[in-house]
Amino acid sequence: MTGNAIELSRVSKRYLLGDDYGVGGSLREAISSALQRSGRAAKGRGREEIWSLRDVDLTVAAGESLGVVGRNGAGKSTLLKVLTRITEPTSGVARTQGRVGALLEVGTGFHPELTGRENVFLNGAILGMGRQQIRRQYDAIVDFSGIEQFLDTPVKRYSSGMYLRLAFAVAAHLQADIMLVDEILAVGDAEFQRKCLGKMAEVERSGRTVLFVSHNLDALLRLCPRSIWLEHGKLVAEGPTQDILDAYLASGFRRNAITRYDEPADPVALRAVTVLDTSEQPSSLLRRDEPLGIEVEFEVGRSVPGLDLSVIVSNLRGLRVLDEAWSDNAPTDRGRPGRYRARLSVPAILASGEYSVGIWIGSAYESLLWQDDALQFRLEGSMRGRPDRVLTLQLGWQVDIQEEPIVPGR
Amino acid sequence: MSADTGWVENPPRRTKRFFDVHELVNYRELIGFLAMRDLTVRYKQAAYGLIWAIAQPMATAMVITVLFGRFAGFPSDGIPYFAYAFLGFTVWTYFTSSLSAVTQSLVSNAGLVTKIYFPRLVAPLAAVLPGLVDMAVAFGAVAVVMVVLGITPGPALFTLPLWIAALCLAVLGLGLIFATLSVLYRDALYPYGLLVQLLFVGSPLLYPSSLIKGGWSYPYHLNPMVAVLDGFHWSVLGGRPPGLPAIVSLLSGLLFLAAGLRYFTATERRFADVI
Question: Which of A210, A236, A251 marks a domain boundary?
């Protein structure tokens, strides 16, 4: 196929909150409002509206792989739903050319009572595969899933890992001209994720058009030469993936260098969490080879004996890289009421990449507060060709030559 | 499913259209798979499913026969009352269980509706089918009862497919209306319950439709189930053939179907947003 596979012209999608049809609506209210309504003008007034997509223009060439980045609620999923025709646009037209296969969620339509085998066929049909096509691919699907010995077991007895493997195996064998993939790689263990990424690359090489929505930026970089960035339903930028990711990351990090809170201190509450660079400026984009500071402001409403504070730094994969507690290195009379400012200095030991800061406050007896993902920061800088390191400690070496070379023939 | 050529458009709502038969044909396998899913789940405990399919109409028919056939002395068009009641409740069991399945077909598949594109008619169409298996099983029991009571069907038996089709269309028509309502409104099941109750009283189940005479006959036949039940009784058990008013009843069924299709297809593209 030549030309374009996807065309969107000024596509907008509006959701009304508190719509009079929908989950919140009742027949009784609908009837009484229909009886009262003098004109249709009253309809829709006073309701909050959200534009999940706003005048999005986009063309994707046949055979192209396009990445889509954006924060939660930026309109990425809505974009896919409009392309698949799951939902209609409010205005504008979306057009696709060729068969569309959508993987918005693995395991859609799996039924717990049915066996693995039955679910392969059912799920395949739901994804748009014909009976013949599933039969042809069946062995490959089973092989990919790696759980052939459980195929006659109802999937309700599967572990969640097995369930996801089987679901992804079916999804991965979907053959369509246009593949719309939403965050599908966020499943399974590391080895299975690698397998999935490999499968995605295979799909991409096979000349199909792929639209790939993901928070896994490394995967995007590997799979998609071009990307778009959505923000509040608008297409903010499009271009080479590396450029888009840089711009996207930079935008997010500037904004989130400080997170503030104002909950009542009962008995404790966070006030602010800040990441500081070497010049004591809040910043969430920092140099890997310079130390950084994490500042936590919190309030203690009433005395908490043995109060403790812990700063947890996790990397993108969710691995806890640091878990530093105040009690490791502090006087014992902690916990008097008051407003505190605690500062943790982190030397330049972390690898470059993205990190998430979590805050825990409690005592030896109880957990009082846990703020997951209070803010994120990114360390930029070279890893000297060793990108898989977690720490860059530059530990001391002691190297001696034990023997002089034996010079032969003397 | 064949590869589509050319552009597929997703335009905004104002575009009016009825349903796309060609697309439905392309999705016939999904209809089959969804129907098979529900059937397989139901018949996982095979014996239980079979017994239930028979026991439900039979137990009702037994109680009804004692109460209305014996004590109240209701007529049954010359057919043994038990056979009349058993056949009627076999059909009625299909009607209520399938109507409920069609009504729930979107809400119970909400995960599919919000995550996968398919012509939304696929779900209610698939919901009409599994009950037919239960009904076929119960028909086996009806045949046994007929042998025991010495009833032999006449040539009218050949019209049975017509009545089965009319039954399915009646279920689909009413079901589509309630399926749509139950996606849009959380309290749609109240009128549903009321309607089923009215239809039950207004159907020739405990009594034959020949009991309703004169000017009341035509309004009585606005219930699409009247012709369906009369048709089943006539074709299987013999007796009085459905008369002219049955045409009203069949047309009423088609009218419900047209209204149901219209309402459903006018709303279906919003389902994913509101379900």
Answer: A251
A171 shares its domain with A278? no
Q: Give the domain-ending residue among A251, A273, A289.
A: A251
Whether A252 and chain B come into contact, CB under 8 Å, resolves to: no
Q: Is B270 in contact with A21 (Cβ distance < 8 A)?
A: yes
Which of helix, strand or coil describes residue A63? coil
Chain A residues touching residue B40 (CB < 8 angstroms) = 113-114, 118
Integer-rounded Cα Rg, in Å, for chain A is: 27
Q: Is the pLDDT of residue A145 over 60?
A: yes
SS (H, E, C) chain B: CCCCCCEEEECCCCCCCCCCHHHHHHCHHHHHHHHHHHHHHHCCCHHHHHHHHHHHHHHHHHHHHHHHHHHCCCCCCCCCHHHHHHHHHHHHHHHHHHHHHHHHCCCCCHHHHHHCCCCCCHHHHHHHCHHHHHHHHHHHHHHHHHHHHCCCCCHHHHHHHHHHHHHHHHHHHHHHHHHHHHHHCCCCHHHHHHHHHHHHHCCCCCCCHHHCCHHHHHHHCCCHHHHHHHHHHHHHHCCCCCCCHHHHHHHHHHHHHHHHHHHHHHHHHHHHHHC
Which residues in chain B come in under a pLDDT of 50? 1-4
Task: Report the gap between the CA of A123 and the closest CA in chain B (Å).
Answer: 9
The structure tokens 């008013």 sit at B245
Residue with tokens 């049954």: B76
ipTM for the assembly: 0.82
CATH number at residue A311: 2.70.50.60
Res A56: pLDDT = 94
Whole-number pLDDT of residue A316: 72
Query: Residue A140 sits in which domain range?
Result: 4-251
pLDDT value of residue A319: 81
Measured CA to CA, the distance from residue B91 to residue B164 in angstroms comes to 9
Structure tokens at A243: 């450029």
| B28 contact A CB<8A | no
| B-contacting residues in A 61-90 (Cβ below 8 Å) | 81-90
Q: Where in A320-390 does DSSP place strands (E)?
A: 320-325, 338-346, 353-362, 367-380
* Average pLDDT of the segment spanning A140-144: 90
Same domain, A178 and A281: no
Amino acid at B52: W
Going by the DSSP 8-state scheme, the letter that residue A22 receives in this structure is S
Which candidate from B30, B109, B187 shows the least CB-CB separation from A125? Answer: B30
Taking a C-beta distance cutoff of 8 angstroms, is the pair A335, A304 a contact?
yes
DSSP calls for A100-119:
EEEESSTTTT--TTSBHHHH
A80-120 per-position pLDDT tens digit: 999 999 999 999 999 999 888 887 777 778 888 899 999 99
User: Rounded to two decimals, what is the model's pTM?
Assistant: 0.75
Domain tally for chain A? 2
Do B105 and B135 form a contact (C-beta atoms < 8 A)?
no
End-to-end CA distance of chain A: 76
Say if A403 falls within a structural domain: no
Contacts of A127 in chain B (CB under 8 A): 116
Q: A244 and A132 in one domain?
A: yes
**Distance between CA atoms of B175 and B184, rounded to whole angstroms?**
14
Q: What is the token pair recorded at B274? A: 């509101």
Does A105 contact B118 at a Cβ distance shorter than 8 Å? no
CA dihedral B205, B209, B215, B216 (to 10 degrees): 0
Please indicate if any CB of chain A lies within 8 Å of the CB of B194: no
- Both A67 and A151 in one domain: the answer is yes
Pairwise CA distance, residues B262 & B173, whole Å: 10
Residues B207, B233 contacting (CB under 8 angstroms)? no
- Predicted pLDDT at A40: 47
